[in-house]
């Protein structure tokens, strides 16, 4: 590829990720809407279903969300009755996030989301898995350069 070709939008990796992400959100929206969840709320719950009782700081690091984004999101999930936020008795500066029974029960309803999402595409599950591995590898390499959390994986 000629150097001036790199400046075309169609050759920008960041644009490919951006447009793919937007299209993925369009696929998730009708699957999450019946659950009353946005995509960001969904990934937050996915993280809590894996490991409950984490601090806001731990959750933010795992989701790559800053506190300015995460705090309103957690307040909304709490208002929905899906989580509780409690000050850590050992360290008042930390807030512990825990699922409520309603939040735990939602996991069963959400269990079909990934399967329905994949079924709604023309992409084979093997290709999705391979793409996921490539993206995770790419993130690790970026993390090694930037000193980001992904380098630790």
From TrEMBL:
Domain HTH marR-type: 10-144
Pfam families membership: Staph_reg_Sar_Rot (PF22381)
PANTHER family xrefs: ORGANIC HYDROPEROXIDE RESISTANCE TRANSCRIPTIONAL REGULATOR, TRANSCRIPTIONAL REGULATOR, MARR FAMILY
Protein name: MarR family transcriptional regulator
Annotated keywords: Cytoplasm, DNA-binding, Transcription, Transcription regulation
Cellular location(s): Cytoplasm
Superkingdom classification of source: Bacteria
Stored InterPro entries: HTH_MarR-typ (IPR000835), MarR/SlyA-like (IPR039422), Transc_reg_Sar_Rot_HTH (IPR055166), WH-like_DNA-bd_sf (IPR036388), WH_DNA-bd_sf (IPR036390)
Organism: Paenibacillus cookii
Organism placement in taxonomy: Bacteria, Bacillati, Bacillota, Bacilli, Bacillales
């Amino acid at each position: 590829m000629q150097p001036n070709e790199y400046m075309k939008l169609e050759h920008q990796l960041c644009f490919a990720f951006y447009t793919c992400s937007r299209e993925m959100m369009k696929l998730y929206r009708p699957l999450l809407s019946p659950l009353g969840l946005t995509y960001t709320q969904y990934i937050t719950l996915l993280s809590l279903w894996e490991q409950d009782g984490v601090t806001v700081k731990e959750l933010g690091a795992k989701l790559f969300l800053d506190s300015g984004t995460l705090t309103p999101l957690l307040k909304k999930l709490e208002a929905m009755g899906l989580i509780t936020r409690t000050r850590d008795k050992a360290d008042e500066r930390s807030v512990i996030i825990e699922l409520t029974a309603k939040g735990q029960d939602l996991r069963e309803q959400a269990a079909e989301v990934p399967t329905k999402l994949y079924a709604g595409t023309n992409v084979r599950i093997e290709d999705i898995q391979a793409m996921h591995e490539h993206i995770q590898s790419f993130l690790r390499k970026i993390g090694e350069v930037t000193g980001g959390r992904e380098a630790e994986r």
